[in-house]
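Moderator note: this is an archived Q&A kept for reference. The question asked for a predicted structure of one protein chain; the sequence and the answer are reproduced below.
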Amino acid sequence: MKKELQEINAKLDKIIAALGAPAAGRARRRNIFSYRVMGGFKSQDVREMVIQLRRDGVTFNDIVQEIKNRWPDNPEKHVSHSGAHRFYISARAGLLKEYGIEPF
């Protein structure tokens, strides 16, 4: 049964390739939903700071620490390491255009 399924999949891939479409299961999927800007990233200052520091080669751990040092009495602007990383990758991929953040 497995061998037959593999043969069918191989034939299907050949047919799809002949039509010029990407092979089944190999097409890149994109999420259709909107990315929300949450937490400290609601602040324009924090967003600009993360992008600028990362462009300058600063690590995400140091970016998080710099944000905490810049706004020590304002914890709603503090972000996590993983949050800064997700924000930067999403911004670079152009997934945050609706917030005025152009891909770079």
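Archived answer notes: The chain has two domains: 1-30, 32-104.
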